[in-house]
């Protein structure tokens, strides 16, 4: 007799276990479900098996091949295009089925007596016999009702509660005569339960139900998957075990080492070639696959661990499922019902909370706390906030459901009834996310002042004027066009301090979210006259007459990311000729190459129009690149120096605030003007706070981040910077090219090295210990300085990525090149040395 093993299912409800594995290959007691089915067929003297495949067919074929290693003969039928359904796939192999045959599902565990069912089928001279079983809750199955002779009278697929008329259900195993296949159309999708059997019933063909005794479990979802394993360990189902039973309830494979101090309770299964370290505690109902390593002091309770898993010291696993090749690092915790997909990594002291599912090949960073499923993104970070707010891949990391929870977490750190301002750029994805954040805020009783699509400098200006306790702005990330950036302001419009960010992170990760009654849900308001308020503030801080008398011609490129048409209106009002390029909105942010092309075109337009200058505005109104009258771009460190020179010429003895990595050209310019300089950490919050708190600051920021005029508002503002530059150029009667010609000639270069998170601290300590204290500045990272000149090297760990940035600064280009090369080698050698130490431990 031949059997048809139906193994084409994808097992959607078992994901992430089935993301890269067909459902019949999911292991029960370290053997695939399909192998247990084959063993059942073999025990019932059925050794010729035809397997129908669709989802990831190569995995099954590679494992079983011709079946000889399993004591059977196997053939395969692969549905290449679209699935034909249970009956259609059997019709597809009709020429191989010329006698009574059995169809069996490849995704359930059972020990039914198939020979008894076959004898019943033959005794009744049935054309089709459905093997049935009784279950307590038949809602998820096809219900079948039979008469006293066991002839089937009625079918009902997955009934509702009110429709349940029997507890006898179809388990997906049938005994059929070849002639019933004539009722199935070729190459059309057809199902046994929904199509063939009702048709046989209507044709009055003899169709019977055989109620089997024994164990049956449809491994339909993750909870049932674990329960089936526990049942098998306790002997509730007859399965062939792959390992020797060393003592009652303890099965151990060959070449497995268990330390004498380890404590293992029964029932437990441990596979071949495993290593169980000292003081490990393994509680009963645990299944451990082949080639698994478990570090000392680890505690495992009722967990399913697949082949090739590595578990570090002192980890804690409770009733979870860990798929093939996953690495659980030292002191990590995986809670009940969590599932980690294959080839993932759970970092040191990371915590995976109850019921969380992690898709394959993901990395949970050290110390991260994961409360939600990690599906599309590649990494779960231990911190929400990076260098400048919360960022991630748009609609992958930063999703509507993430944004709702983030809004609720922020709102939960505020008093009920507080007012928060929310704004965004003009893109649809930012609108989606900002609305989700608003929903989260309202749910915790926070009221909203919704500025909608607004340039971020305008939002910062309005924060203090609206009397809100804080603000949120959502936009495309200035440096990564596929990322979103969510920034949080305080009541002054300054980015939140690290302490307040930690409070939001704590509420988010601990899910310490407040919920209010219907009467206390937040209210949304839409402030009026926003542009007028900003325009008046802008105009009050500008020498309007100087700009008006300049008769300047300026070309403004908005690079399809409209940040408001305020500046051209101003300039026109003040008598300037403003030519605007690319001011329409494009939903997808431009790539770096596209922006460079537009910058080149901007230079050509400035030259052709004989303009005074051109400017490319980006980052939703925060950042800009200048183009001089000759069409040559001015950006980065050169832009920083030019702005400092221009502003200090008008404000001698003023104070300048720049990030720690800005070039020493700034110091030289400040010395020329008898001014002062304050260097801060390399993040926007530090620059904003210093610009507000230090007396007599006339300019803050840098060419890469934007510029701050603290008397206007506390944030970066490209629009005001351009207007102020026009004012200065008019008063000083200079052009951009003339100013650039007198700037200090400084060589300033940088490079980046990848550095694992766990090594960053040791790397910084190494540089501090190997250099004299007098030669160090520790504002941010480690800066190695020379007291004889402005030469320095800065080793700066990245706040949001496993990277270290190296900067070198000098008037001597050769010194910069040699220093960068030398320190890069030192960093790489140290990382390699530390990684070797970690591996050897």
UniProtKB/TrEMBL annotation:
Domain Nucleotidyl transferase span(s) in chain numbering: 3-232
Subcellular location: Cytoplasm, Cytosol
UniProt xrefs under SUPFAM superfamilies: Nucleotide-diphospho-sugar transferases (SSF53448), Phosphoglucomutase, C-terminal domain (SSF55957), Phosphoglucomutase, first 3 domains (SSF53738), Trimeric LpxA-like enzymes (SSF51161)
GO biological process, any: carbohydrate metabolic process
Keyword tags: Cytoplasm, Initiation factor, Nucleotidyltransferase, Phosphoprotein, Protein biosynthesis, Repeat, Transferase
UniProt domain Alpha-D-phosphohexomutase alpha/beta/alpha: residue ranges: 383-513, 533-631, 636-741
CDD domains from the UniProt entry: MPG1_transferase, NTP_transferase
Molecular functions per Gene Ontology: intramolecular phosphotransferase activity; nucleotidyltransferase activity; structural constituent of carboxysome shell
Domain EIF2B subunit epsilon/gamma LbH stretches: 250-352
Xref: InterPro entries: A-D-PHexomutase_a/b/a-I, A-D-PHexomutase_a/b/a-I/II/III, A-D-PHexomutase_a/b/a-II, A-D-PHexomutase_a/b/a-III, A-D-PHexomutase_C_sf, Hexapep_transf_CS, LbH_EIF2B3/5, Mannose-1P_guanyltransferase
Predominant location category: cytoplasm
Family under the similarity heading: Belongs to the phosphohexose mutase family.
Protein name: Mannose-1-phosphate guanylyltransferase
Upper classification of the organism: Bacteria, Bacillati, Cyanobacteriota, Cyanophyceae, Oscillatoriophycideae
């Amino acid at each position: 007799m031949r059997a048809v093993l139906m193994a084409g299912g994808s097992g959607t409800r078992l994901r992430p276990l089935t993301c890269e594995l067909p459902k019949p290959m999911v292991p029960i007691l370290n053997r695939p479900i399909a192998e247990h089915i084959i063993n059942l067929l073999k025990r019932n003297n059925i050794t010729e098996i035809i397997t129908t495949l669709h989802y990831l067919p190569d995995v099954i074929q590679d494992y079983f091949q011709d079946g000889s290693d399993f004591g059977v003969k196997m053939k395969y039928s692969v549905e290449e295009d679209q699935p034909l359904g249970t009956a259609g796939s059997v019709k597809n192999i009709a020429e191989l089925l010329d006698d009574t045959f059995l169809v069996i599902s490849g995704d359930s565990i059972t020990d039914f007596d198939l020979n008894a069912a076959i004898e019943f089928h033959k005794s009744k001279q049935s054309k089709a016999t459905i093997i049935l079983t009784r279950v307590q809750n038949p809602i998820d199955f096809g219900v079948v009702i039979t008469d006293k002779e066991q002839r089937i009278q009625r079918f009902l697929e997955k009934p509702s509660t009110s429709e349940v008329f029997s507890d006898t259900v179809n388990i997906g195993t049938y005994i059929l005569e070849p002639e019933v296949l004539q009722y199935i159309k070729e190459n059309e999708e057809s199902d046994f339960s929904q199509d063939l059997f009702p048709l046989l019933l209507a044709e009055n063909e003899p169709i019977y139900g055989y109620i089997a005794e024994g164990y049956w479990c449809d491994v339909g979802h993750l909870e049932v998957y674990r329960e089936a394993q526990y049942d098998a360990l306790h002997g509730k189902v007859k399965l062939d075990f792959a390992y020797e039973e060393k003592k009652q309830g303890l099965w151990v494979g060959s070449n497995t080492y268990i330390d004498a101090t380890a404590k293992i309770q029964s029932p437990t299964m441990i596979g071949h070639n495993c290593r169980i370290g000292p003081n490990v505690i393994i509680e009963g109902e645990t299944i451990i696959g082949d080639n698994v390593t478990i570090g000392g002091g680890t505690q495992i309770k009722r967990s399913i661990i697949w082949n090739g898993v590595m578990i570090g010291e002192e980890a804690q696993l409770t009733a979870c499922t860990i798929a093939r090749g996953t690495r659980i690092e030292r002191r990590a915790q995986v809670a009940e019902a969590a599932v980690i997909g294959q080839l993932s990594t759970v970092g040191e002291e990371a915590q995976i909370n109850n019921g969380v599912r992690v898709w394959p090949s993901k990395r949970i960073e050290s110390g991260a706390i994961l409360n939600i499923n990690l599906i599309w993104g590649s990494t779960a970070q231990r911190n929400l906030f990076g260098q400048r707010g919360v960022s991630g891949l748009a609609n992958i990391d930063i999703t509507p459901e993430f944004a709702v929870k983030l809004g609720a977490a922020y709102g939960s750190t505020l008093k009920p009834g507080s007012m928060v301002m929310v704004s965004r750029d003009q893109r649809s994805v930012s609108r989606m996310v900002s609305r989700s954040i608003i929903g989260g805020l309202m749910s915790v009783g926070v009221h909203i002042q919704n500025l909608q699509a607004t340039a971020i400098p305008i939002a910062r200006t309005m924060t203090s004027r609206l009397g809100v306790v804080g603000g949120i702005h959502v936009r495309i990330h200035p440096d990564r066009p596929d990322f979103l950036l969510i920034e949080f302001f305080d009541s002054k419009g300054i980015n939140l301090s690290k302490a307040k960010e930690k409070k939001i992170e704590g509420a988010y990760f601990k899910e310490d979210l407040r919920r209010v009654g219907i009467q206390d849900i937040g209210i949304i308001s839409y402030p009026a006259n926003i542009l007028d308020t900003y325009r008046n503030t802008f105009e009050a801080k500008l020498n309007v007459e100087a700009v008006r008398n300049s008769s300047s011609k300026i070309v403004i490129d908005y690079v399809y990311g409209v940040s408001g048409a305020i500046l051209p209106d101003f300039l026109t009002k003040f008598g300037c000729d403003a030519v605007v390029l690319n001011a329409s909105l494009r939903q997808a942010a431009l790539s770096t190459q596209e922006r460079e092309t537009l910058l080149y075109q901007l230079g050509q337009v400035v030259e052709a129009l004989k303009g005074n200058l051109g400017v490319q505005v980006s980052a939703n109104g925060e950042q800009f690149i200048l183009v001089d009258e000759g069409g040559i771009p001015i950006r980065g460190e050169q832009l920083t120096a030019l702005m400092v020179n221009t502003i200090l010429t008008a404000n001698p003895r003023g104070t300048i605030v720049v990030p720690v990595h800005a070039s020493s050209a700034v110091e030289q310019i400040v010395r020329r003007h008898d001014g002062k300089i304050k260097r801060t950490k390399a993040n926007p919050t530090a620059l904003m706070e210093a610009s507000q708190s230090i007396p007599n600051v006339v300019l803050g920021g840098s060419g890469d981040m934007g510029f701050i005029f603290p008397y206007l508002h506390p944030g970066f503002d490209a629009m005001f910077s351009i207007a102020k530059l026009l004012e200065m150029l008019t008063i000083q009667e200079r052009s951009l090219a003339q100013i650039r010609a007198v700037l200090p000639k400084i060589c300033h270069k940088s490079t980046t090295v990848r550095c694992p998170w766990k090594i960053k601290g040791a790397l910084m300590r190494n540089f501090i210990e190997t250099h004299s204290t007098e030669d160090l500045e520790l504002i941010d990272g480690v800066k190695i300085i020379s007291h004889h000149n402005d030469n320095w090297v800065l080793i700066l760990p990245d706040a949001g990525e496993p990277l270290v940035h190296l900067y070198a600064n000098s008037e001597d280009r050769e010194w910069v090149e040699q220093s960068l090369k030398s320190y890069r080698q030192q960093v790489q050698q140290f990382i390699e040395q530390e990684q070797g130490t970690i591996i050897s431990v």
